[in-house]
Design a protein that fits this description.
The protein is an alpha+beta fold and 396 residues long. The protein folds into two domains: 2-34 and 304-394, no CATH class; 49-299, DD-peptidase/beta-lactamase superfamily (Beta-lactamase, 3-Layer(aba) Sandwich), CATH 3.40.710.10. The protein is built from ten helices and 20 strands. The strands form six sheets. It has a seven-stranded antiparallel beta sheet, with no helix packed on it. α4 runs antiparallel to α5.
């Protein structure tokens, strides 16, 4: 009997001591909480609707009904985005040539005769892609929107279909395009949708360069000025104006500001601004509303550390050891407004084999900094040993 018990004990020890230990588990903390502090009191326009956000943040501040409304020429943000997506333009490059045919001249005369914003063209004229986009975005040529739509998609209808598909892919649920220029009252959106679109467009280097140009010399039309009269003031680097009697004054803007040594881009939109006795121009009313809104936002910007060594972003757990923190390897500071949420994604395996040496890299955090992803390696803060013989022996 003693021999049997002894053999059983030996077998138990052999089996338990040799059995593999379970892998350690890793869990991440939720890092997308809002920046601390009360929501700022912003100087919103008295009428229409507006929205404002900070590049790298996952939500916006909005004002007004946020119902679909005509947007006039700010529709050209999407027009330019689709052109640059389908026909990418390297930074500073002219791009391919577009030949102005008699049909394009007919479009120019038709739009001019109906009082639309146009850029003069002649049959046989050669416009580079960059020049055409300059004519679209700076003097806001409606005829150039049509020329580009046909050049990219073969027809305006096909191009507008692409515009709407792109809007759906961005989740712009209150946006619909009926034309490439925005002159149609059926081209509608909201301030919030247009801010989200502008944030995406401003990630394209060519788009950023184009909307920040104060003027351009075109082959036939000659010197053309940017309709954005606020360009260069209060850090404004774009984006697009719009006006029709139905839409009122509209302006989507992007402005840069340095806060505590960190560059930040504020993006906003004001729609449906109306002329008054004091302000007889609807577009000037949009500019005035923008100046007040932007100033109030910029005064509340704060630099907040989002990731830093010593502030855990996750934890490694094993049943034979105390939990070990997962830390960021470097510090990341974002500039934003209280109440906005940073965009932070953590990618780590669910399980990991042991032992784990201290400061071993086991994952990555991706932080949206100014509209661009920054990868931050994640490391184990301390050493996690493998399961000991005694733990294997007695843990059941």
């Amino acid at each position: 009997m003693i021999v049997i018990v002894a053999l059983a004990a030996v077998a138990y020890v052999s089996v338990q001591g040799a059995r593999p230990a379970p892998a350690a588990t890793i869990s991440a903390f939720v890092l997308n909480g809002a920046l601390p502090g009360p929501n700022p009191s912003l100087s919103w326009p008295s009428g229409g609707e507006a929205a404002l956000g900070v590049a790298g943040m996952g939500n916006l501040y909005t004002h007004g009904p946020q119902t679909s409304t005509p947007i006039a020429s700010i529709a050209k943000i999407m027009t330019a985005f689709v052109v640059l997506r389908d026909r990418p333009l390297a930074s500073g490059a002219p791009g391919p040539e577009i030949t102005i045919n008699p049909a394009a001249v007919t479009i120019y005369h038709r739009d001019k005769s109906s009082g639309q914003s146009v850029v003069q063209v002649h049959a046989g004229e050669q416009l580079s892609e960059r020049q055409a986009l300059e004519g679209l975005l700076l003097p806001s040529g409606n005829n150039v929107a049509t020329i580009l739509a046909i050049w990219v998609s073969g027809s305006v209808a096909a191009f507008v279909k692409e515009m709407n598909a792109t809007a759906r892919s961005f989740g712009l649920s209150h946006t619909h395009y009926a034309d490439a220029s925005g002159v149609s009252p059926s081209t509608v959106s909201t301030a919030a949708d247009q801010v989200r679109l502008a944030m995406a467009a401003m990630q394209l280097p060519a788009f950023r360069q184009l909307v920040d140009e104060p003027q351009v010399e075109l082959p036939v039309a000659g010197l053309q000025y940017n309709v954005n009269a606020l360009l260069g003031t209060d850090g404004i680097v774009g984006v697009k104006t719009g006006f029709t009697p139905g839409a009122g004054g509209c302006f989507v803007f992007a402005a840069k500001k340095v806060v505590s040594g960190h560059m930040v881009t504020v993006v906003g939109a004001v729609l449906r601004q109306r002329a008054t006795a004091v302000q007889p121009s609807a577009l000037e009313a949009a500019f005035s509303a923008t100046t007040s809104l932007l100033s109030s936002a910029q005064s509340r910007l704060e630099a907040v550390p989002i990731l830093r060594p010593g502030r855990p972003v996750g934890v490694v757990r094993a049943p034979w050891s105390s939990p070990i923190a997962v830390d960021a390897s470097i510090s990341v500071t974002l500039v934003g407004l209280p109440g906005l949420r940073p965009e932070v994604s953590v990618f780590i395996p669910r399980r990991i084999s042991t032992p784990i040496m201290g400061h071993r890299e086991i994952g990555v955090a991706v932080v949206n900094v100014g509209g661009r992803p920054v990868r931050v390696p994640l490391v184990v803060a301390g050493k996690l040993p493998g399961a000991s013989f005694l733990w294997r022996l007695f843990d059941v």
